[in-house]
Description:
Bound molecules: ligand 1
Number of strands: 7
Strand order of the largest sheet: 1-2-3
Number of domains: 2
Largest sheet: 3 strands, parallel
Distance between the termini: 38 Å
Low-confidence stretches: none
Mean pLDDT: 96
CATH architecture of the largest domain: 3-Layer(aba) Sandwich
CATH topology of the largest domain: Rossmann fold
Structural class: mainly alpha
Amino acid sequence: MENKTVYSALKPTGNLQLGNYIGALKNMVKMQDDYNCIYMIADLHSLTVENVPQDLRRRIYDFAAMFLALGLDPEKSILTIQSFVPEHAELAWVLNCYTQFGEAKRMTQFKDKSKKNPENVNVGLFSYPTLMAADILLYNSDLVPIGKDQKQHLELARTIAERFNNKYSPTFTVPDGIFPKQGAKIMNLLSPETKMGKTDDNENGVIFILDEPDAIMRKFKRAITDSGNEIVVRADKPGISNLLTIYSTMTNTSIAKAEEHFQGYSYANFKTEVGEAVVEALRPVREKYTDLINNKDYLTQVMREGAEKAERIAMRTLSKVYRKIGLVSK
Ligand code: TYM
């Protein structure tokens, strides 16, 4: 076991979709065997969009059950809910004061989300990346498994860490992002030029982890392909490339092998087989989830124990930071 710390989190807005799994969770599961991993449900990040309180509560439990069903293991990793560890919000405030307005304003997610939802451009949405930086830096994380859409936020976290270290003395580890070789950006099946997302308008192009087999098959059969009949990964074939990437990651086959396998297939048969592979890969997850979601006491206990372990680390970092910047201790 290498003595490196890994941190990642997912925010419980919408339901988990295949892009979350291929882009982040798959690596998160894998890294548990080699590193000290800390994984969280980023509930505070969810507050940047409007929520119905009972729906948010249900989704937080859903995510806890999904974490375990997908293979995150409380025996190997620290698993908890972000708001259970108050140091996240506290360090985020400090980091806000070490982040320039212009830096936060340049974040493409902020720009995209403000444009998409102009009636709720709240200050939380703006300072979202400093809370994410706090998440990562509190644990002196070395590695952060994420999809491509979080790369810019990770880079800001690095900038903030370096700035703080240079101004005071080495305090934070400067983290590196870990991106999957294939699938760092899974696309919507109906619009392969846009990212698959939990809250896409076009839900028929999003595979949710808990979708029933029928729904998964229907969505894959309707997936947009391209003109021509070749089944290869190529820049001018975004639809086919996306489907091949999904197949290859979900069956642990290389792209080259997958291309070879589908040689001579019709697009219709190709899409059916990709759908079947995804149904089979997700079947055990759905079964485990169903067992777990009915056991809220167990889920709460896992998250509470995780919080205790996380807080022991987080407290140390926060008090070090407070001391360095000149706050006095009680
Ligand atoms: P979130 O919840 O939007 O997404 C969770 C993870 O899934 C990845 N992802 C994708 N990867 C490939 N293809 C896609 N279509 C796709 N859609 C999503 C995301 O890149 C992410 O890794 N701000 C974060 C949560 C967060 C966090 C953190 C992450 C909070 N604190 C600290 C890492 C470290 C977010 O909203 O991710």
